[in-house]
Amino acid sequence: MPRILSIWLPQLPLDRLVRQDDARLTGPFAITHEERNTWRVAHPNVAALMAGVGAGQPLADARAICPDLLTEPSEPLRESLLLRALWRWADCLSPRVALDAPDGLLLDITGCAHLFGGEAQMSTYALTRLGDLSMTSQIGIADTKGAARALARFSRQNSEISEPGNTGAALKHLPIAALGLPEQTISDLARSGLTTIAQLYEIKSSELARRYGLELIKSLSAATGQTPDPVTPKAADPVYAARMTLPEPVGLVSDVEGVLERLANAVCARLERDQKGARQFQLIVRSVNAGDHPFQIGFASPCFQPAPVVRQFSYPLSKLKLEFGADWFRLAASHVESIRLRQSTMEEDTKHADQRTRLIETLGNRIGFDHVRVFVPRESHLPEYEFEQVEAVQAGATSWSAPPRARPVRLFNPPEYVRVGIAGRPPVSFNWRGLVFTAEHAEGPERLTPRWHVDKDLRTRDYWKVQTIEGRRLWLLTYPASPVQDWYVAGEFP
Q1: What secondary structure letter does DSSP report for 238?
Q2: 71, 259, 321, 415: least buried by Cβ within 10 Å?
Q3: In what order do the strands lie in the sheet with 38-44?
Q4: What pLDDT does 77 receive?
Q5: Nearest to 175 by CA among 192, 153, 191
Q6: Which of 106, 105, 104, 44 is nearest to 74 (CA)?
Q7: 202 in helix, strand or coil?
Q8: pLDDT at 346 over 70
Q9: Is the Cα torsion angle 471, 472, 477, 478 positive or negative in sign?
Q10: CB 139 within 8 A of CB 159
Q11: How many Å apart are CA 424 and CA 5, to the nearest integer?
């Protein structure tokens, strides 16, 4: 008879911050999530619970109850990565482990429990190990996947074990929600006075299917073992890494680079074979006397070639000091993505794109990728909003279309005030930055209206392109509806 162990991690998003020793957790704190356009409390900590904050409360109500409450939105991606790390950890309990996203694991422990002294001892061992990892957990063990999951999530104990062949009786006291049914079905059953699984046993399956649908019967049959519902494990994600141990330590940077080249060839060969590329590589150099020296590099696009890896590591390795040498090395690829191999080309556009990518990677690994930013176009009729700055890694290939009207190369935001000498529209003579300018030729006005739904300044603007006798071409701005006609320099043309 199969035996299934379910691990539920009810505070997974909060435990992720506990593992990071987040200082905010010393006071009332909660993880929030958005539900039907309303932010609600999802996972409050103990201090928040003691202050009266409860899971499911609207965030506004929770802050009214506890003004000192600190919050952070849920991050499903980071939480998923933590769950997958625990999925790999669970191999120490059973070779057959499946994800029960977003906050659980399912293990087929048939034939494994005796290695721990029995199911009770195995459950205690798992709870202890998870506690050592700062993870809150509950465990259920039963003959079926549905029953084990129900016991783990709806039992009042940290661990509940159903005796073999006694699944139906073990589920009797649990609410119908333990079957994992849709909310609408649970609501329909509650309106009929059905709240526990024991009440479903007293009604014919055909009647339940007719009134509440086949989904209820399928869930109930799977939980009680009437229909098979095995744990289907998935192979763990492949690890693209290589390591090398030397019989004698090496202390020269050139020797370390030689080891790195061999490791990069091994890792990148596997990446290319699987048509994968990595955006980050981590190198660990273990010295004889000072322990591990970690290094990390990043790429603007997935990389599977060893030459760029060695090239980007050359700068951080040049600062490495190995007094007594190093004898252990490990290179690992992370943030792996699928790629499509492309044919090499000599086209100028492709060459420029590769050079741009290489520049971004070099600068990003020196000063940080978040500091390497580029301008990208944005749809707007106002000149100061026709572009924005984004991280170069996220920008990708951008194409700038010619604006419908000439725009200055340099914009001044906010515009700089000028003192009018000889009035006019635009002024014939004016003083700007301590210099006197005289207009030789002017084009305009170009009238632009504000963004009424966003801007606080709702004044209409008139822009003039002015060629001065002194040689500078300026973009002058005025507000025609203002009672006083002040003038400003909004930009300068080349």
Answers
A1: P
A2: 321
A3: 38-44, 29-35, 70-73
A4: 83
A5: 153
A6: 44
A7: coil
A8: no
A9: negative
A10: yes
A11: 85
